[in-house]
């Protein structure tokens, strides 16, 4: 018993010393007292046990402390540079905690960017500039970085973009363990069928979505998300019971990750699309020039176009051009761009789309007939892009302060006018006709 106590005390002393904890005042007298009455053979055996046990404990504690320290550094880094860290990972790089120090920031590439090697920067300001350059390059990565830095610019998630047909894309799904789907978690397809389980998209959650490259196959995705996944992928490695949806050229396919290979899921993509409430796009529609289902107008007075300058039956680019040419200081009211829906639905007719540079998105989307109409939704998206490019909503803080008093005086009046405009029908005119 005394030998075991001596070995334990000696191991504790060695481990504590390794981490700069001084226990000599207590340990030395005890160790000296025990060893003074022991033979060399017995002491040698104990020393071997002490060396082996202390070494294993030191290695284990060192590894655990490094993990704790790294997690602490991650927390501190996200508190200080959270958006930039997320954008870095979206760009395919991880902050290297072991190699980085003030004035020398090292970024390690993920599995899809290994060929580019490590990157080094002197400051986070330099990193931000690099990320901005990455956005302007217009590559596949640009979209992910832009979403990480400016999420407010996007109305749709990457998964939703896949269903909307915005390029070739894929999405990865894991079983949501808070649903009945947990009963087949990590089950191969043979067991699923044997147990009579139905694979339901409602029991899954999307954990990642990205661009699908020209020659990329399911096996390539499986290897990527197992060996060295993208830096912004935060879920477990791809495993049995996961699902992959691919959209290549409009061909939507879903696959169950099986023990060997993949099993096709004919209904999964349609189920997921329904869950997301995706409005199907109408194929082969020329939104730019087709005036048979929707046309546009620009008016000096949104509430009563007959009171001023108005241009009817235009394409959207023509309406926006006419809108720009109408002076804002005219006396007839708030100038606008609107649409005339001609799709045979109960929502046919004329409606304001943008009033004095403010898109009427919230109001339009509150009406099911507009919210579910691809022509109207396409027009909203195009005007949003137009406003972002032509009239970015960026104000000088000093100038913004000067506007406060004036805005307080007119905001209620404008809100009342816009509400009246939205609710009142507008008389139709022929293409190009102008009222004075």
The largest sheet, given as strand count, sense and whether it forms a barrel, is:
5 strands, antiparallel
Strand tally: 13
Oligomer: single chain
**Sheet with the most strands: spatial strand order:** 5-4-6-7-8
Describe the overall structure:
With 436 residues, the protein is of the alpha+beta class. It has 14 helices and 13 strands. The termini are far apart.
What layout of secondary structure does this protein have?
Layout lengths: L1 H17 L5 H12 L4 H51 L2 E3 L9 E5 L9 E3 L2 H13 L3 H10 L8 H6 L5 E7 L13 H6 L9 E8 L6 H10 L15 E6 L2 E7 L4 E3 L3 H9 L17 E6 L10 E5 L1 H10 L10 E6 L7 E7 L2 E2 L1 H5 L2 H4 L2 H17 L6 H27 L13
Helix pairs in contact: 1-2, 1-3, 3-4, 3-5, 4-5
In short:
The chain has 436 residues and is an alpha+beta fold. The protein has helices at residues 2-18, 24-35, 40-90, 124-136, 140-149, 158-163, 189-194, 218-227, 268-276, 316-325, 361-365, 368-371, 374-390, 397-423, and strands at 93-95, 105-109, 119-121, 169-175, 204-211, 243-248, 251-257, 262-264, 294-299, 310-314, 336-341, 349-355, 358-359.
């Amino acid at each position: 018993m005394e030998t075991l106590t001596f070995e334990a005390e000696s191991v504790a002393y060695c481990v504590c010393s390794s981490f700069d904890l001084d226990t000599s005042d207590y340990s030395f007298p005890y160790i000296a007292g025990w060893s003074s009455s022991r033979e060399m053979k017995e002491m040698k055996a104990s020393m071997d046990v002490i060396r082996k046990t202390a070494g294993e404990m030191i290695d284990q504690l060192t590894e655990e402390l490094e993990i704790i320290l790294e997690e602490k550094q991650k927390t501190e880094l996200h508190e200080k540079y959270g958006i930039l860290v997320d954008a870095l990972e979206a760009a395919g790089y991880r902050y290297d905690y072991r190699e980085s120090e003030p004035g020398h920031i090292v970024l390690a590439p993920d599995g899809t960017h290994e060929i580019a090697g490590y990157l080094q920067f002197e400051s986070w300001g330099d990193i931000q500039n690099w990320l901005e350059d990455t956005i302007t390059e217009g590559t596949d990565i640009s979209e992910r970085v832009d979403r990480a830095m400016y999420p407010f610019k996007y109305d749709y998630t990457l998964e939703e973009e896949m269903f909307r047909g915005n390029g070739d894309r894929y999405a990865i799904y894991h079983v949501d363990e808070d649903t009945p789907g947990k009963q087949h978690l990590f089950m191969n397809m043979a067991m699923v069928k044997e147990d009579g389980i139905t694979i339901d998209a409602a029991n899954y959650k999307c954990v990642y979505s990205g661009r699908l490259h020209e020659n990329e196959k399911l096996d390539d995705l499986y290897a990527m998300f197992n060996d060295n996944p993208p830096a912004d992928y935060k879920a477990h490695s791809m495993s049995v019971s996961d699902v992959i949806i691919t959209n290549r050229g409009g061909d939507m396919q879903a696959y169950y990750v099986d023990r060997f290979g993949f099993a096709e899921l004919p209904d999964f993509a349609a189920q997921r699309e329904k869950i997301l409430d995706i409005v199907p796009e109408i194929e082969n529609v020329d939104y730019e020039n087709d005036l048979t289902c929707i046309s546009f107008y620009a008016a000096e007075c949104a509430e009563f176009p007959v009171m001023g300058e108005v241009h009817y039956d235009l394409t959207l680019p023509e309406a926006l051009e006419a809108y720009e040419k109408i002076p804002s200081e005219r006396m007839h009211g708030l100038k606008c761009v609107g649409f005339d829906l001609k799709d045979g639905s109960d929502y046919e007719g004329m409606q304001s789309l943008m009033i004095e540079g403010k898109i009427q998105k919230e109001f339009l989307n509150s009406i099911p007939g507009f919210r579910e109409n691809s022509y109207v939704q396409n027009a909203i998206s195009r005007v949003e892009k137009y406003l972002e490019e032509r009239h970015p909503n960026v104000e000088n803080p000093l100038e913004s302060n000067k506007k406060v008093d004036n805005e307080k005086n007119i905001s209620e009046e404008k809100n009342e006018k816009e509400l009246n405009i939205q609710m009142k029908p507008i008389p139709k005119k022929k293409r190009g006709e102008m009222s004075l």
